[in-house]
Every structure is written in C-alpha cells, then in structure tokens.
Specification:
Elements lengths: L1 H16 L3 E3 L11 E3 L1 H19 L5 E3 L9 H5 L2 H4 L1 E7 L5 E3 H27 L5 H7 L1 H22 L3 H10 L12 E8 L3 E4 L7 E4 L5 H5 L2 H7 L6 E10 L14 E11 L4 H17 L8 E5 L9 E9 L2 E12 L1 H10 L5 E3 L4 E3 L2 E8 H12 E5 L10 E5 L10 E5 L6 H12 L5 E3 L5 H11 L3 E5 L3 H4 L1 E6 L5 E5 H11 L3 H9 L1
Parallel strand pairs: 3-9, 19-20, 19-21
Antiparallel strand pairs: 1-2, 4-5, 4-6, 7-8, 9-10, 10-16, 11-12, 12-13, 13-16, 14-15, 17-18, 21-22, 22-23
Helix pairs in contact: 2-13, 5-7, 5-8, 7-8, 11-18
The protein binds glycyl-adenosine-5'-phosphate.
The site of glycyl-adenosine-5'-phosphate has 19 residues, from β10, β13, β16 and α13.
C-alpha cells in the first residue's frame, strides 16, 4: 500500500510538472478540492469526452445529445429528492477537529480486512510457487478465514445501517471497530449527522425578492426536464437515450485524493428511456456495454470490476459501479442505475405537466422507465493516467544500461500530442524543414515542435506527456525526404518518407480504432 501511495504522490507531481493538472488559484494558496486543467490535461480530457460522446451518439442511432443549463428551476431539486435526501453522514473527531464521512471510514475498514487477506495470499503464493492453489488456501488458512468472517460481518452490519439510515448504528460500528482518526490517532468521535451537499446561490436582486437556486449536483435532471422536448422535436421512439456532458457541483466534505473527489467536476451522463417492465434487461445490456467501453482502452482488463450497491439510491431498483484499480485501491469511476420512473413521475407531480409517452405499438401512454449511465470525466481522466503511468529502467537496446524514464503509455487516440517533430540541430535548414512538415500535418492531428536540448532529452519530455510518435529531421532528410519515426512504447525507430507520415500516424491515432473494439470485446 505504501508503495502505491508513493506512486499516487508521484502521479500528482507529474501532473503539475507536465501541464496536466494544477491546483486552482494556486498563487493564493489554492482552493480546497478544486483543480485546473493545464495545456496537456485539457487535450487529454477533451479526447476522453470525445471518446464517450462518439460511443454514445455515433454508435447508437437512438442516442442523441443535449447541453442543458447549470442553473435550473429550484423546484427541480425538490422533485428529484436532492433537497431532502442528498446528504452525507458526517462524524467529527473532537481532538483533531477533522470531519469525516462515516460511511467512508467504515468502507476503509472493510478494505483493510481485504488487504490483510490479499497479503496472506501473496505471501503464500511466493512461498509455494507453481504448486500454489489459491482456492484451497482461501478455504483453509485460519488467518484468511478469520479476516473473511470479520469483513463479511462488518459488511452486512454496515449495509443494514445504511439502508435503515441508522446514524447511531454507523457511529457504533466506528466505535466497535476501534477506528481511529488518522490525524489525532484517537477514538474521540462526535455523533453522526446528515449534511446536504448542494451549493446554493441567489438569482435576481434582493429588492425584487431573490430566488434561491442550486448549482446542479448532477447533469441528469437537465435531461429529465427536457425529455418531452427531445422526444417530440426529434420524433424519438422508445427505447431511446439522451446524453449530456457538463459540470456538476457538490460541497464534498471529505475532498481528498486529487481529482477523484472534487467540489466542481464534470459528468458524462446518459439516460435511456424504456418501457416499464423492460428496465432490468436494459440495465444488464448497458452494464456490459459500458464495461466494454472501459476495457477497449487496453489499460488491462484486471483493473476493472463491478461493485453492486449495498444501499440503493432513493430512485433506483438496481445499481452497480464500475470500479478501476487506482493507486489507492479499487474505486468507483462510473455508476449505472436503473432509476425506475421516479424522476419523470416526480417532475409530473411537481410541475403539474403531463410527461407521458404515447407508445404507438402498444397503443397506450406511460411514464417511461430509465437506465442511467453516469461517469465522472475527472475520475476517468485519473484512471487513464494511473493506468498509463510507467517508470522504466532501460536496457542496452533502448538506451544506456541503468537509464530510467517515466512514460505515459496513453492509448494513442487519447494522447494530448500525437506527433512531436524534432529537428536534430537548430541550424542548417532543419528547423525550416520541420516547420514545413508541421504545416502540412497540423490539419490532421495535434503536432508539437521542439528544438531545445539533446534529442534524448526531447524524447524523454515527449514520453512524459505520452506522445506516441516522434519524427526526427536530420541532414539526410533534406536530400532523401525521409524522417526517423520513433515509437514511444518500444522505443524502436524506423525511416519513413515524409509523404507517408500523415497516413502512418493518422491511422494509428484515430479514435475509430478504439470505438470499433467496443463491438469486439
Ligand atoms: N446522476 C447520478 C449520479 O450523479 P453519482 O454516483 O453520484 O451518480 C456519478 O455520480 C459519477 O460522477 C461518479 O461515478 C463519479 O465518477 C462522478 N463524481 C461524483 N462525485 C464526484 C466528485 N465529487 N468529484 C469527481 N467526480 C465525481
């Protein structure tokens, strides 16, 4: 774990050093849990958003997009349940005066038991080598069994407390499990209290009677209140989906872990409207499709898993998360919910408008049921970076023995810069030739010119931002019109005519390569 935390720290400083993510308002000492994306970060983030958007709207004829406003009528949040039920259970440590989410403290305790089990298994696997039978070991080793029982018992007790919204029981679990505050090291806890996560502001002048409005905590409601607008204007037939990418705001109390939990973040949400009674079949279909989308990036299938919810949200009849193995453990990146007809029915009730759909095949009207897929752009960004970050020691074939490099092995279609153009020296007409090549290629993909420092240093800089290809211009280029292409992952080099460059690179960095895999995975 310590090693993983170390990797996480390195990743955070790498993000700052190479222009991916900066703390917001840094010259004023920052603003808690708010971050800015730098020149490379914004490119990566835009590429992730395009991958999601295209996978929804290009691959599915019956999914269309919208872009609704952040400010919405305040009654929307009453209807959605957010005013009354969008709360976190909080507990304070009286000695450190630090505030924690009670559910997170308990989840971390469950993860500790899991860690203990995994360590026993790792140790035994090393000891027994090829003859190790993990299943038998799990079923017979007393320490594994003991921790398995502790984990399961805690899990069941925790799920019940959450489902019953039993705050006293949550506190009692923290006491019984002897969970200590990581800062003070003591168990001097307050009661558990509910805390609403929505930010509010005022619209209009106070003299006119200003209206209290909320910064949306999810983009989904903008889709629900536009359901009929899109259905009618687009002549959409059920089943169909509406996709949206946009900012969301939550006054997170335990805002740690970099861009994983922010107060201002971005969501990519899709609401899929179906006939009542068919929602659980569609839930399974979207679960599979979304997992394929993640795995198609090639970061490693083992880094993903489903996690079914212990406590269903007030609007759901089935829910699961797609978790990614972050440097700080498996964590939720995406939520998939079967939201029933809760939202549309509730908006019907609060607005007094008819939001029913007339199904011509069934010859009847009904309020559609909804499957939601909801993924955080920033968490996705973090998972892609964490899954791509490598520290490598080079051998003789790729550099001086013992040399190291940090490389982001980003999927080429997501990389901020696709091709770096590097004149070997800053003279003899090589920079002019390099500029000429860029001028031709810049319409196809993102290129970067770099002439400073040795070629080795320039390769390292491009490795660090995940540029999949470099093209070096040398003196021979001026006569043979060829460049040396250097591949990021293998560090292999090959000579290719300038006239082939666009074709070679454009093909490799095309998003189409990943989108096509979604069908194949
Ligand atoms: N409309 C459903 C909804 O908002 P959620 O599980 O609360 O569900 C969906 O959020 C996704 O939004 C999460 O899986 C996560 O990726 C992202 N997300 C939620 N809160 C976040 C935060 N504070 N910072 C960054 N991303 C967040």
């Amino acid at each position: 774990m310590a090693q993983h935390e170390d990797v996480f720290k390195k990743l955070i400083s790498h993000c700052k050093e190479y222009g991916f993510v900066f703390p917001s308002s840094e010259i004023y000492d920052g603003l808690g849990a708010v971050y800015d994306y730098g020149q490379n970060g914004v490119e990566l983030k835009n590429n992730i958003k395009k991958y999601w958007w295209d996978s929804m709207t290009l691959l599915n004829e019956n999914v269309v997009g919208i872009d609704s406003a952040i400010f919405m009528h305040p009654t929307i949040w009453k209807a959605s349940g957010h005013v009354d039920a969008f709360n976190d259970p909080l507990i304070d440590n009286k000695d450190s005066k630090k505030r924690y989410r009670a559910d997170v403290l308990i989840e971390e305790q469950i993860a500790k038991y899991e860690d203990k089990i995994n360590k026993e298994i790792e140790k035994a696997a090393k000891r027994f080598g090829n003859s190790f039978d993990e299943q038998q070991f799990r079923e017979t080793n007393p320490r594994v069994l003991e921790n398995e029982v502790k984990k399961e018992t805690l899990h069941i007790r925790f799920a019940k407390a959450l489902n019953d919204s039993n705050l006293e029981e949550l506190r009692q679990i923290i006491i019984d499990e002897e969970i200590v505050c990581p800062i003070s090291g003591t168990r001097n806890w307050t009661e558990v209290r509910q805390f609403n996560l929505m930010f509010s502001t005022e619209m209009g002048s106070t003299a006119d009677g200003a209206m209290k409005i909320y910064l949306r905590p999810e983009t989904a409601q903008g889709i629900f209140v536009n359901f009929l607008n899109v259905q009618k204007s687009g002549r959409m037939k059920i089943p169909f989906g509406i996709a949206q990418i946009g900012k969301a705001f939550r006054n997170e109390i335990v805002a740690r872990q970099f861009v994983f939990r922010m107060r201002e973040f971005e969501q990519m949400e899709m609401q899929f409207f179906v006939r009542p009674g068919e929602e659980l079949n569609w839930f399974v279909k979207w679960k599979e499709t979304r997992m394929k989308w993640h795995k198609a990036l090639g970061l490693g299938d083992k880094k993903y898993r489903f996690h079914d919810h212990d406590k269903l949200a007030h609007y759901a009849n089935a829910a699961t998360d797609i978790e990614f193995e972050m440097p700080f453990g498996f964590k939720e990146v995406e939520g998939i919910h079967s939201r029933t007809d809760f939202d549309l029915s509730s908006h019907e009730k609060y607005s007094g408008k008819n939001i029913k759909y007339f199904d011509p095949e069934l010859n009847q009207s009904y309020v559609p049921y909804v499957i939601e897929t909801s993924i955080g752009v920033d968490r996705m960004f973090l998972s892609v970076l964490a899954g791509s970050y490598c520290e490598e020691t080079l051998d003789a074939s790729t550099g001086s023995v013992g040399d190291t490099r940090v490389v982001l092995k980003l999927p080429p279609a997501l990389a901020p810069i696709k091709l770096a153009i590097l004149p070997l020296v800053k003279k003899d007409g090589l920079p002019e030739k390099a500029r000429e090549i860029i001028d031709n290629l810049k319409f196809d993909f993102n290129c970067q010119y770099d002439e400073k420092d040795s070629i080795g240093k320039r390769y390292r800089r491009q490795d660090a931002i995940g540029t999949p290809y470099c093209a070096t211009i040398d003196h021979e280029t001026l006569t043979d019109n060829c460049v040396t292409i250097r591949y990021r992952d293998t560090m292999q080099q090959e000579r290719a005519p300038i006239s082939d460059l666009a074709g070679i690179i454009a093909d490799k960095v095309n998003l189409k390569n990943i989108l096509k895999k979604i069908k194949e995975v």
